């Protein structure tokens, strides 16, 4: 039996593995702990048992991780008569070695299962089930169609972590939510699957990306038949096109939202006017609307352009106090923090008749 403290460490390693964190960045346990029979059994059962794992990482990634694990175990074993490497782990690696594992270049172009975990906040060593979202993602940065929407970016992971926190969940529970630039749909799925919202419309301007969101909804047991009590919709939305009360319910099958989400939607200064126009339309639908925008600040001037446009349109702005966790302290999800990531809350001044301004 593996003790609870060790299981907590193993769970972090497991979350990294299913999120496809680079093998050299995995947070391995010390080698003396790794070589114990109970820990080896746990690793096989929870990470490498192909009969049990529903959405496994790609074969090449599994093989890279297993090779690294076996090498650590070999170094840790001083007396082969007392310690040995699990037959199950060795068999798993052997099966992958003799299979037709694609090349690194080919593997990068293929869609793969990626699972993001949002652990519950615990006050002790109690192990709670993770809130997970499993997606099919393209691991290449930009797809052949030129869109960046086929993988999940760090701004979405930080915003998801905030929404899954005690404060974030309290603010979104029971709300009708609309996501702009949904990409893989990770945030929408997290909200619909785990955060007790009333409904979600996940939108993107790229039809191919919207199709990907539909696939990912299905992977997570979400569909549009409303049987779960949470309305789930996907739609194509080009920013800047009119959004009005008359057509909203007809187009999206849900009343006007009281929460709008957007992650990494401010990276291009040329689309900011259209984005702010769309936000203004949503405030016209519901003046009490709350907007959360999460942004990786790659270019401070570009992001300032967004903030300035919001202020000129009578939006109230406030940065959410939820800074990224340093990488060596992250327990899931895992994301780089070298570039600043910020979450901003946007509401509207209670004024009327203010003209568009950019």
UniProtKB/TrEMBL annotation:
Q: Which domain of life is it from?
A: Eukaryota
Which InterPro entries does this entry report, sorted A to Z? Methyltransf_16, SAM-dependent_MTases_sf
Under the heading Pfam families, the entry gives: Methyltransf_16
Any one GO molecular-function label of the UniProt entry: S-adenosylmethionine-dependent methyltransferase activity
Quote the cellular component terms of the Gene Ontology held in the record.
Answer: cytoplasm
Cite the SUPFAM superfamilies for this sequence: S-adenosyl-L-methionine-dependent methyltransferases
> What's the name of the protein?
Methyltransferase-domain-containing protein
Originating organism:
Ophiobolus disseminans
């Amino acid at each position: 039996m593996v003790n609870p403290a060790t299981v907590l460490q193993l769970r972090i390693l497991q979350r990294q593995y299913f999120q496809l964190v680079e093998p050299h960045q995995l947070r391995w346990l010390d080698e003396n702990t790794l070589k114990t029979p109970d820990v080896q059994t746990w690793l096989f059962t929870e990470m490498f048992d192909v009969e049990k794992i529903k959405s496994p990482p790609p074969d090449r990634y599994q093989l890279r991780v297993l090779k690294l694990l076996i090498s650590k175990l070999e170094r840790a074993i001083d007396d082969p008569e007392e310690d040995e490497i699990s037959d199950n782990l060795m068999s798993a690696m052997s099966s992958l070695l003799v299979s037709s594992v694609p090349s690194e270049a080919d593997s990068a172009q293929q869609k793969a299962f990626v699972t993001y975990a949002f652990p519950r906040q615990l006050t002790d060593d109690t192990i709670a089930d993770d809130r997970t979202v499993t997606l099919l993602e393209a691991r290449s940065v930009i797809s052949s169609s030129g869109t960046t929407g086929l993988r999940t970016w760090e701004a979405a992971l930080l915003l998801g972590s905030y929404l899954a926190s005690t404060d974030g969940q309290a603010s979104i529970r029971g709300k009708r939510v609309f996501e702009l630039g949904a990409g893989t749909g990770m945030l929408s799925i997290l909200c619909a699957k785990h955060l007790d919202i009333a409904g979600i419309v996940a939108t993107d301007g790229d039809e191919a990306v919207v199709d990907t969101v539909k696939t990912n909804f299905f992977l997570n047991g979400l569909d549009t038949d409303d049987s779960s009590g949470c309305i789930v919709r996907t739609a194509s939305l080009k920013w800047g096109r009119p959004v009005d009360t008359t057509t909203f319910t007809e187009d999206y099958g849900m009343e006007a939202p009281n929460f709008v989400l957007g992650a990494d939607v401010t990276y291009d200064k040329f689309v900011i006017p259209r984005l702010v126009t769309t936000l203004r339309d949503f405030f016209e639908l519901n003046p009490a609307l709350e907007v959360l925008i999460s942004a990786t600040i790659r270019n401070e001037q570009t992001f300032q352009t967004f903030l300035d446009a919001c202020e000129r349109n009578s939006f109230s702005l406030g940065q959410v106090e939820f800074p990224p966790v340093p990488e060596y302290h992250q327990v899931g999800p895992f994301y780089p923090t070298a570039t600043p990531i910020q979450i901003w809350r946007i509401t509207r001044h209670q004024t009327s008749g203010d003209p568009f301004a950019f």
